[in-house]
Structures are given as C-alpha cells and as structure tokens.
Write a structure and sequence with these properties.
Four Helix Bundle (Hemerythrin (Met), subunit A); 180 residues
C-alpha cells in the first residue's frame, strides 16, 4: 500500500461519513470532508504520476473511489431534492454503463486496462465542482444558484459525451478483437 493508494482508500472510506452527514443535514462538515476527498483525488494522481508510484491496484482503486464517492453524493443529494433527479439518473446510468462494460469485457476475456478518457476527466471534475458548489451553497448560503444551474447542464453534457465516447471505443475495440 503506497501513499496514492492510501489516499484512494481514505476517499472510499469517507463515503459513508459524507452520506450520513448529508442525511442528518450537517452540511458544513459534509462539505469540508467532500472537499478534502476531492483534493485527495488530485494529490494521489499527482504523487502517482510524478513519483512513479503507479500500481495495478491503484489503476482500479482510484476510479472505484471516485465513482463511489460521486454516485453516493449524487444519489443522496437527489433523494434530498437538492440536485435534479434526472441528472442523478444520468450520472448514475453512465457509471453503471462503464462498470457494466468493464465487467462484460472481463467476462469476454478482453484485455481491460482502465484508461480514463479526457472527456471523462472533464466530467469527473465538473461533477466534483457541482457537488462542492451545491454543498458549499447549502453550508454557507452563498447564493450560487446561477453557478449551480450552469454546472448542472455542463455535467449533463459531459456525462452524455463521456458515455457516448466509452460506448464508441468499446464497439471499436471489440470489433478489432473479433477481427483479430
């Protein structure tokens, strides 16, 4: 277990704490822990890349931690009617599509190397920004309604584009493997 993997594991373990804080409407601590979790994602990626600490488990643990954190936050905020339910369904469906595609590739004995797409990185950054903005707005009453609406539509657009690119890549790659 190296430092980046420990950060990813910590992010994963923060999920039930953040969800519980949201459910009991303790928005300020939920916001603070969420921001720390988001920062840990940036730090673990930087450390892994710049200090040659990439590991095979880290290639899976990091995206699992990211997806678990964001899906749990989005579902909770959707349940509380803080985020639009249609957006929650879109975000969760895309993540299920990615996980389902990975499982399908694995069961079909296709080589699986989780490589995030640029649009997927943008999507994750926008999802984090939206969740942090919403939580910060609730916790500190800063009046970020207009920013939230822009982020809602940016997340929706990047989610659709990312999901479409994953599907396109899978179709291309599975066709190439069948032909080879």
């Amino acid at each position: 277990m190296n430092f980046p993997n420990a950060l990813s594991l910590g992010r994963l373990l923060s999920v039930p704490v953040i969800v519980w804080l949201l459910l009991v409407e303790a928005y300020m601590p939920a916001f603070l822990i969420f921001v720390l979790a988001g920062l840990s994602d940036a730090v673990d990626g930087y450390v892994a890349k710049h200090f040659a600490q990439h590991t095979e488990i880290g290639r899976f643990l990091d995206p699992i931690a990211d997806k678990t954190l964001l899906v749990a936050i989005y579902i909770t905020l959707g349940h509380q009617e803080i985020l639009p339910v249609w957006l929650v369904i879109l975000v969760v469906s895309r993540d299920l599509l990615i996980v389902g595609g990975a499982l399908l590739a694995y069961t079909m004995s296709q080589t699986l190397r989780p490589t995030p797409l640029l649009i997927s990185k943008v999507n994750t950054a926008l999802q984090i920004a939206l969740a942090a903005t919403v939580l910060g707005d609730i916790a500190f009453d800063v009046g970020a309604g207009a920013v939230v609406m822009v982020l809602v539509y940016a997340v929706a657009a990047s989610t659709i584009l990312s999901g479409a690119q994953y599907v396109g890549n899978w179709m291309r790659d599975s066709g190439a493997e069948e032909a080879g």
